[in-house]
Amino acid sequence: MNISHDQRRIYWLALALLAAAVAVAGAWTLWLKPVSADANTAPTPPAAAEPLPAETYAPSVPVTPSPEGVATAAEPVKKASTIVYYQDNYGYLVPVMCSVPMADGIAKATLSMMVQSPDNDMQAARLGLRTVLPENTSIDLDISGGLARIDLGKEVLSMPDAAAEANLVDAVVQTLTEFDTVDRVEFLIGGQKLDKLPHGTAVKGTFTRGDINVESAEPTVGVSDQSVMLYFPADSGSVIVPVTRMVRSGADINTAVMELAKGPAGDEMLESVVPAGCGLIDVKVEDGVAKLNFTGEFVDLVQNSDGGRLALKALVLTCTQFEGVKSVEIYVDGQKYDASQGELGVPSFMNIADNIVYDYIQTQANALFE
């Protein structure tokens, strides 16, 4: 077929227009089509003008993978308060309120905190105290009808002396009878009932809650005399130590404050509550407030390393154990003493682990910057 010159020109022009149309259509399609990210590649976010602070990246709740591999927020561990009995460097038993994970068997978990181990010893050392049960001591515990039947491992037969044995027994009894479900404690050692431990400490029969850290005000005081509970700061300056003192006179607030003002029986074991040379003028209780009147030397209390905080706390604990006493006021030579907090109310507990650590850090920090 013969194609004229004009027909040839029209053919090439049509072909060029078709190619141009295809090119334009392809470009238009690419321009409008959304870009989808690859399933295995995360899109790159635009750069920020300023780097985000570190806490922006840190999750506020720990994240753990679920069985399906999906990240979920971990359940916060519920805690329960419990009373753990430690000992100080002089053998005084010291109750401390601590936290343990909420679970069945809190009594056994509490006793387990009193066994020597790297973790338990570190916790006790942070409080200036020591554990009372030997390393690797096993504990089996059954509580029924108010009786706690505890079976301790044979490690307790290796205590160094009678004082350590007595502390072990007293600490276990005091700890268990802190629970409302326990009023009596029975001991087994290695699954067997024994009469005594190697150094003579009795473990036969049942034990009930008794006096703690017993001392005598005078050597001639007989066993039939009454007792008062006194509270003294430990020489470490971090905890309050309860002391049972046998006295001749009545076990009332006047006797307790008078004995407290005398100071601890040991010269270096516990700290005095009132400064040297300070005397007690009188004690009055009015409308639930115990009003203690001391001589002028009382103002020297602020010279203590903690500003007298533990001494004031010991005064309050000693007074508010008596029925009807809800708070304490201090007077010096008849004038009300400003303790920087008005009436001194009763603390929730004598020793709280977290507070002890915090107060110790604060005291050390204040000493550094003075």
Class computed from helices, strands and strand pairing:
alpha+beta
Major sheet description: 5 strands, mixed
Mean pLDDT: 81
Question: What is the ordering of alpha helices and beta strands?
Answer: HHEEEEHHEEHEEEEEHEEHEEEH
Task: Quote the beta fraction.
Answer: 15-25%
Which regions are unreliable across 5 or more consecutive residues at pLDDT < 50? 22-66
Task: Say how many strands there are.
Answer: 16
Detailed description of the structure:
There is one protein chain. The chain is α+β, with helices and mostly antiparallel strands and 370 residues long. Helix content is 28%, strand content 23%. It has 2 domains: 79-207, no CATH class; 214-369, no CATH class. The relative contact order is 0.09. Strands 12, 13, 14, 15 and 16 form a 5-stranded mixed sheet that branches. It has helices at 5-32, 54-57, 106-112, 118-126, 162-176, 253-262, 309-320, 353-369; strands at 63-65, 71-73, 79-87, 93-101, 139-144, 147-152, 184-189, 206-207, 214-216, 226-233, 240-247, 280-286, 289-294, 327-332, 335-336, 344-345. It is globular, with a radius of gyration of 37 Å.
